[in-house]
């Protein structure tokens, strides 16, 4: 009997005896589970895992690993040109991992992108760029290609089954990847060529999208497009010259350009549908025993075109097939003293049960010591490296999210003290699962990524506001002394159901009637509402200054052109300057290989961008002026406040609410302030992180009396039975407190 059992186990697929992995709620936040056991989602990633690093990380307590990148996928496709299937490259690396750590679990990246041979054989399925004269040397497939889905899906299923059959007891999920760098951007993100996708597959997808949106009623379609000749059969993708056309200075009037805005919506929906398609394959083949992770939902702080970016996170968060999302944290503010913000609408992701996993791809001082180091390396000493690594972990533990430490260069962590720090964080990540992970923020930030469907493309005076809001203004929120929750506008009902004292509408130029109805409910209980740029100016039917004024409570005046720079009338503080990257090379790569291998070198400069067609505040007796403009706008009110019977309204025409001004707004609204300093602050009910910009004695005020407060980077108790304490900190130091 014993021999029979051994042979049965040997011959049966491994996944029949594997555990079930899932994402479920744990103490107030999404969490990774193995069967009924919560697992701290802290892992290590390399292109191809190296023995020294795997053994070092394993000895430090790391047991979750991830691997593979886009370039090795193109060089080693599992779908061969002769129709055969093979994962020798993947198998070789996985078997090495299991040799070095037989008790580990791993999450490999499996690409759903077409192999190069298929692209050459199927030119009609390739993405077609509408930028005049642009022809990439290495074509890529259209995300809308039904032919590729039909032909690749059986092979993708085979890849998932292969992993399950051979490594099921070690496999905890699949990272589904596609597009540039596997991050589900449209392929024009590789080439800097706006205007995709005008291919026939995308045209067919556009037709199907319109049939569904307009109920297959051609009269409704023609009325929306203002074109009696258009039908579902003959509809075309709008060409680039139509997509860049604006009707009112910086704006794209939805009443006149529904053809274009519908295409933007369709293009983004195609990507989400593609993600859902392959995630469902993983769920089906594993009988729901594996988790799925995807790159998607990136916040809008990179200069991609509207089509190339992630503009449908609300749709993705509603997918049952997706368990986890991921992104590298912002590249704009990851230096010492900055926040390293996760690029995800974290409150909305958590609301829909999605576990976010931050990609910690910061470089340590070991990279800077190389003769030709990566230009993203900012740490020059061990202490600086530790401050950055602890900041990554502090952001993760205070938001209740996951984290993988990413080694892009095989040298990032090869220092015993760095390994010790990673081990310490892995240990405390496990501890965190047994404490409350509930958010107690009193500030909510609201975004609507679809708003740019109605604005000009970034990069000119038609739209400089978006870069400022996501790059500059978001950084100020982290330095205002209190945590905040970032939601999508589609989740405003959840915001209204909680006791937020301040609600900030960041990029909500487009709001639906449903959004507006919820906002009216927020105008109560002494709450403060903060508005940027042109809140609600775009309606479902057109552009309306009147409805914008009704929404925010101010009389507004249209400004045709001016600097996005405001000067405080009392303090003289000027806000609105933003740091922008200046590339050393033009992003005009003409092949995937070239785009993969190019360095990310850039310099930076501070600028005060200009903007066409925005709004200032028209003065009246009830308006309190906070800041005015400069130069030709020196008499224009750019930031103002107005008190109503049951709520307060603050309007800013520029991304110019500084940390000090936000601190004042928060305090007046009754928001708990953890620190009066200019440090980066992040917190939930049990955890508090402070990342300093200057040395000094820091007074920390807790929202309640705590039995014990432990600083986990030093593992020292800093306070007992206290609701405040003072701690001396150095410049660019990170401290993380467990508040019990």
Account of the 3D structure:
The protein has 740 residues and is α/β, with parallel strands linked by helices. It has three domains: 2-190 and 272-432, Alpha-Beta Barrel (TIM Barrel); 443-669, Rossmann fold, CATH 3.40.50.880; 694-739. It has 22 helices and 29 strands. A hairpin with a 2-residue loop joins strand 1 (21-26) and strand 2. Helix 6 (146-167) packs parallel to helix 11, helix 8 crosses helix 11 (258-285) and helix 15 (382-399) runs parallel beside helix 16. It is globular, with a radius of gyration of 26 Å. It starts with a helix and ends with a strand.
Quick overview:
With 740 residues, the chain is of the alpha/beta class. The chain folds into 3 domains: 2-190 and 272-432, TIM Barrel, CATH 3.20.20; 443-669, 3-Layer(aba) Sandwich (Rossmann fold); 694-739.
Topology (elements, then pairings):
Blueprint: H1 2-11, E1 21-26, E2 29-34, E3 37-39, E4 42-46, H2 51-59, E5 64-67, H3 70-75, H4 88-100, E6 105-111, H5 116-121, H6 146-167, E7 173-177, H7 188-191, H8 200-213, H9 218-225, H10 240-243, H11 258-285, E8 291-295, H12 313-317, E9 324-328, H13 346-351, E10 355-360, H14 365-368, H15 382-399, E11 402-407, H16 416-432, E12 443-447, H17 465-478, E13 485-488, H18 492-496, E14 502-507, H19 513-522, E15 527-532, H20 545-552, E16 556-563, E17 566-568, E18 574-575, E19 578-583, H21 592-597, E20 602-607, E21 610-617, E22 624-628, E23 637-643, E24 647-652, H22 659-669, E25 680-683, E26 687-691, E27 696-711, E28 716-729, E29 734-739
Parallel strand pairs: 4-5, 4-11, 5-6, 6-7, 7-8, 8-9, 9-10, 10-11, 12-13, 12-14, 14-15, 15-24
Antiparallel strand pairs: 1-2, 2-3, 16-21, 17-18, 17-22, 19-20, 22-23, 23-24, 25-26, 26-29, 27-28, 27-29
Helix pairs in contact: 6-11, 8-11, 15-16
